[in-house]
């Protein structure tokens, strides 16, 4: 046997009677490990940021468990995918309101400062309402100056349902007056 053949036979990938196919697999796995390492270096975050993420993520996880077990009436909410900070919510038009029979989709975005800063909640479904503008932005005091860390997404969704039942002209957003018969629900672009 040549010296080169002995080196191949003594290598860790071929000892123990492995086949040529195993050699190719181990050779192909090496570059994958090398590619992963730089990503870890690029993703460094400060300990302060990590603590914020940890606090907010724990709170969001807790709220997710609560809303899954006991959702507010006519509402549902949860993460869009793997990102705990991006949620999708569905609200059914409150019975007895002009929105009865409507199905409304909302986006909920949490910041790393949650629950000390309010989530950003916007309608994805086009809706005519004096407190919701044409881009789906909701004019609701608890999503702005009256936010409190004691509030939860369940309470926010209940407040939005209440807003759909009773318009609050004090928080009026510029919408022309349309009769309820002309209301249409479409997804915003």
UniProtKB/TrEMBL annotation:
Pathway field of the UniProt record reads: Protein modification
- SMART domains from the entry? UBCc (SM00212)
In this protein, which residues make up the domain named UBC core?
55-189
Where are the catalytic residues?
A: 139
A GO biological process held by the record: protein polyubiquitination
Record's keyword annotation contains Nucleotide-binding: yes
- Reactions performed catalytically: S-ubiquitinyl-[E1 ubiquitin-activating enzyme]-L-cysteine + [E2 ubiquitin-conjugating enzyme]-L-cysteine = [E1 ubiquitin-activating enzyme]-L-cysteine + S-ubiquitinyl-[E2 ubiquitin-conjugating enzyme]-L-cysteine
Residue ranges under compositional bias (Low complexity)? 46-55
Q: Does the keyword Protein biosynthesis apply?
A: no
Q: Which GO terms describe its molecular function?
A: ATP binding; ubiquitin conjugating enzyme activity
Name the enzyme's class: transferase
Its Enzyme Commission number(s) read: 2.3.2.23
Pfam assignment, any one:
UQ_con
Q: Which keywords has UniProt assigned to this entry?
A: ATP-binding, Nucleotide-binding, Transferase, Ubl conjugation pathway
Q: Where is the composition biased (Basic and acidic residues)?
A: 1-10, 21-45
Which parts of this chain are annotated as the region Disordered? Answer: 1-55
Q: Which family does it belong to?
A: Belongs to the ubiquitin-conjugating enzyme family.
Q: State the protein's name.
A: E2 ubiquitin-conjugating enzyme
Q: What is the lineage of its organism?
A: Eukaryota, Metazoa, Chordata, Craniata, Vertebrata
